[in-house]
Amino acid sequence: MAFALGLPAGTVATFAAAGLGAHDAPLFGLAVLTATAVALATLTSAPGAIGAAIQFWALWDGFLVNKFGELTFTHADWPGLVALPACAALASLVAAKLRAAASRQEQCLKPVDHEGPYPPGDREAVEQDRRCQARREGTARVHRGLRGAQRPR
């Protein structure tokens, strides 16, 4: 998704940066495109975010640094070529971790429509609660089976 949205989003960001004077301050243009890459990366996977960030670098180098759409690979261009994909990948990975954590948190909140903590005889609900409780305590230890053992409180 990000690779497909990269060119339109990057084009809009490049025009906006150019309108705000990024031709005279290319680092400002790089900052605008980096912010756009990070915003786009939060919505997609790391490979798509990196692909979009490389497109953003090409737009930055071709239209804000060189002004005529010509790509150059000078010593000054490498920090942008490294920084854009790195920021996009990092943002994408952080967003994925946050989405996964939110998903796990939602799984721990299983609704129960009767009195008491679990439906009668619902072993799956008890095991799910134990896994969630272990995560909340910061340990991967899940308490032993239910046969004859009391659940620790």
Overview in brief:
The protein is mainly α and 153 residues long.
Description:
With 153 residues, this protein is an all-alpha fold. It folds into two domains: 97 residues, no CATH class; 46 residues, no CATH class. Helices cover 64% and strands 0% of the residues. It is built from five helices and no strands. Helix 1 packs antiparallel against helix 2, helix 2 packs antiparallel against helix 3 and helix 3 runs antiparallel to helix 4. The two termini are 46 Å apart.
| Main beta sheet | none
Number of domains: 2
Structural class category: mainly alpha
Helix content: 55-70%
Count the strands?
Answer: 0
Spans with pLDDT under 50 lasting ≥5 residues?
A: 140-149
Query: How do the helices and strands follow one another from N- to C-terminus?
Result: HHHHH
Q: Tell the overall outline.
A: rod-shaped
Overall mean confidence score, pLDDT: 77
Quote the distance from N terminus to C terminus.
Answer: 46 Å
Indicate the proportion of strand residues. under 5%
